[in-house]
């Protein structure tokens, strides 16, 4: 199965969720800034990467863990993916879309905008990392829920 | 046979018309009659588009308002995840004209629907030859 985490830019919350799913981030405490910045693709994707579903890795059950940015339009992503699956005979149990966008806090939004849109990386990146650490509990809860459902 | 996916991000279902031409649901040798055009458009809706992919015989069509770069990438990367390569993605660059916008707007009001449809028909007819050329290209 392909599990696709998605958020606005596909570079902070969805990447964090995918990394948590793959065990690249701790599951018992919020990550340090250095740990977050060491996650592949964290705070690196640009606007022209939006929509490009990227595989981060394969979990212990053989699921491909992916992430993507959808510019705050999850319905576009969901409509395309679901209707393409229908037309190309891809079974619905072969993929799962998980919206992480609503786990994003204000610090992540502001830091992400500074870093990605305005290219103020020196001020934006620490702020978005701090915000991600704050939101990590909620993101982890969602990831654990997804994992639990996949195990059923 | 590989599927053709027509798409556009200009807020009007030009892709549906192109797919219908390619599939033979709309004429290739003349301009469509109003009832023929509306018959096709009503199958998929005349709204701004929510990127749902519709099947029109041999071809697929989707449209949205803006974000065409992103929707194209979603299609390519999602199908790529499943190693599906037997399709061709064709982006249409036709713009939504004022006449067309007015027609779509008027068609939402029961008393003005006929006038709205008339405007849509006229506006589509003005670009139909170009759409026909694009949809009939042998290279796609």
Would you kindly provide a written description of the structure presented here, covering whatever features stand out?
The complex is a heterodimer of chains A (152) and B (140). Chain A is α/β, with parallel strands linked by helices. Chain A has one domain (2-101, 136-151). Helix content of chain A is 47%, strand content 14%. Chain A has five helices and four strands, in the order E-H-H-E-E-H-E-H-H. Chain A has a four-stranded mixed beta sheet, covered by helices on one side. The longest helix of chain A is centred in the C-terminal third of the chain and has 31 residues, at 121-151. The two termini of chain A are 14 Å apart. In chain B, strand 2 and strand 3 (59-63) form a beta hairpin. With 140 residues, chain B is of the alpha/beta class. The model of chain B has no long low-confidence stretch (mean pLDDT 92). Chain B has one domain (3-94, 128-136). Chain B contains five helices and four strands; from the N terminus they run E-H-H-E-E-H-E-H-H. Chain B has a four-stranded mixed beta sheet with strand order 2-3-1-4, with helices on both faces. Chain B has helices at 14-23, 34-44, 68-81, 98-106, 113-136, and strands at 3-8, 54-56, 59-63, 87-91. Helix content of chain B is 49%, strand content 14%. The chains are: A alpha/beta (152), B alpha/beta (140). The A-B interface holds A 2, 48, 50-55, 64, 66, 68, 70-71, 73, 75-77, 79-81, 83-84, 86-88, 90, 94-95 and B 3, 50-55, 60, 62, 64, 67, 69-75, 77-82, 84, 87.
């Amino acid at each position: 199965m392909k599990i696709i985490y998605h958020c606005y830019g596909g570079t902070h919350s969805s990447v964090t969720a995918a990394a948590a799913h793959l065990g690249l981030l701790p599951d018992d405490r919020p990550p340090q800034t250095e740990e977050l910045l060491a996650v592949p693709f964290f705070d690196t994707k640009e606007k022209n990467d939006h929509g490009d579903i990227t595989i981060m890795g394969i979990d212990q059950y053989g699921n491909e863990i992916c992430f993507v940015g959808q510019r705050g339009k999850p319905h576009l992503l969901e409509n395309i993916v679901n209707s393409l699956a229908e037309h190309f005979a891809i079974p619905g149990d072969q993929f799962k879309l998980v919206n992480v966008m609503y786990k994003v806090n204000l610090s992540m939004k502001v830091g992400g905008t500074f870093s990605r849109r305005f290219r103020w990386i020196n001020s934006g990146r620490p702020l978005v990392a701090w915000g991600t650490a704050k939101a990590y509990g909620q993101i982890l809860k969602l990831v654990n829920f997804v994992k639990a459902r996949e195990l059923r | 046979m590989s599927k053709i996916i027509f798409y556009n991000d200009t807020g009007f279902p030009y892709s549906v018309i192109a797919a219908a031409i390619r599939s033979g649901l709309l004429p290739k040798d003349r301009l469509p009659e109003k009832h023929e055009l509306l018959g096709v458009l009503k199958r998929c809706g005349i709204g701004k588009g929510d990127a749902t992919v519709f099947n029109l015989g041999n071809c697929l069509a989707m449209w949205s308002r803006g974000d065409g770069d992103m929707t194209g990438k979603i299609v390519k990367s999602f199908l790529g995840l499943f190693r599906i390569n037997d399709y061709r993605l064709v982006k249409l660059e036709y713009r939504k004209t004022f006449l067309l916008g007015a027609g779509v707007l008027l068609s939402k009001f029961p008393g003005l629907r006929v006038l709205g449809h008339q405007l849509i028909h006229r506006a589509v007819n003005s670009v139909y030859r170009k759409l026909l050329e694009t949809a009939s290209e042998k290279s796609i």
